[in-house]
Design a protein that fits this description.
This protein has 228 residues and is an alpha/beta fold. It has 2 domains: 6-116 and 217-227, Rossmann fold, CATH 3.40.50; 119-214, Rossmann fold, CATH 3.40.50. Helices cover 38% and strands 21% of the residues. It is built from 8 helices and 10 strands. The protein has a 4-stranded parallel sheet with strand order 2-1-5-6, sandwiched between helices. A 4-stranded parallel sheet has the order 8-7-9-10, with helices on both faces. A two-stranded antiparallel ribbon has the order 3-4. Helix 1 packs across helix 8 (215-227) and helix 6 (170-184) packs parallel to helix 7 (198-208). The longest helix is centred in the middle third of the chain and has 17 residues, at 74-90.
């Protein structure tokens, strides 16, 4: 591409996401223009609370602009994600990235839309061999069963640990989860949330002594590939 790539980034929380977007932009290693949209932008606390998951619903975790975390039912925010896609296309983006590694339906857009979870999962599973143990780090205990289904691969054992990427104790939680994965004998760790940072990846690498795959890095690589 001759012109600078314009990338739309959608958070399932509230924008801007200064805890995510600058690091992804840096990881791309190229000059990109970023436009952001949050599916909860402009909503009141009571409106956000109505988006909470019921028992058994596919649950996602994100962050509000005040720094607090929120649990959301995927089914209740799909339309909001589509609205953000439409808005970003109107603002002239070439590519839209959903800043969430969960599973999503296909969206409608005249421009490319990247839901990085599928690429992240496929990339990671492509590296494990028969008899390996794959460590998965997720942000919430209620996501364990979904993680077991999503990351299931024949003849590959799973080890799952929970650590929120948000809040003042996040690094301590990540370190504790990493120690649990290290003790279980994992061969590779996938940090399955866009909220996990490069700093947290380094913590996991140091504790486990194993390769670690980060969603942010996969997103950055996709953007760089599209930019050509």
């Amino acid at each position: 591409m001759n012109k600078r790539l314009a990338v739309g980034m959608i958070t399932i929380g509230q924008s801007p996401r200064d805890d995510i977007v600058p690091e992804i932009k840096q990881l791309t290693g190229i000059n990109v223009e970023i436009a952001e949209c949050g599916v909860l932008d402009g909503l009141s606390r009571s409106e956000i609370e109505r988006l909470a998951p019921e028992p058994g619903e596919y649950m996602l975790v994100s962050k509000l602009s005040d720094g607090s975390t929120v649990r959301l039912a995927r089914s209740k925010i799909v339309e909001n994600v589509q609205r953000c896609i439409n808005s970003l296309v109107e603002r002239g983006v070439d590519l839209t990235v959903i800043l969430c590694s969960g599973e999503w339906p296909k969206f409608s857009s005249s421009k490319l839309v990247v839901a990085p979870g599928e690429a992240f999962c496929g990339f990671t599973l492509g590296m494990v061999n028969e008899g390996d143990k794959l460590g998965i780090m997720i942000p919430d205990e209620d996501q364990v069963e979904v993680a077991k289904r999503r990351w299931n691969k024949e003849k590959v054992e799973l080890g799952i640990a929970v650590a929120s990427p948000f809040g003042l104790t996040a690094n301590d939680e990540v370190a504790r989860a990493a120690k649990s994965l290290e003790q279980s004998g994992v061969d590779l760790v996938a940090m399955d949330c866009v909220g996990y940072t490069m700093e947290k990846k380094r913590i996991v690498q140091e504790i486990t002594g194993k390769p670690v795959v980060l969603v942010r890095s996969v997103i950055a690589n996709i953007i760089r590939e599209v930019a050509g």
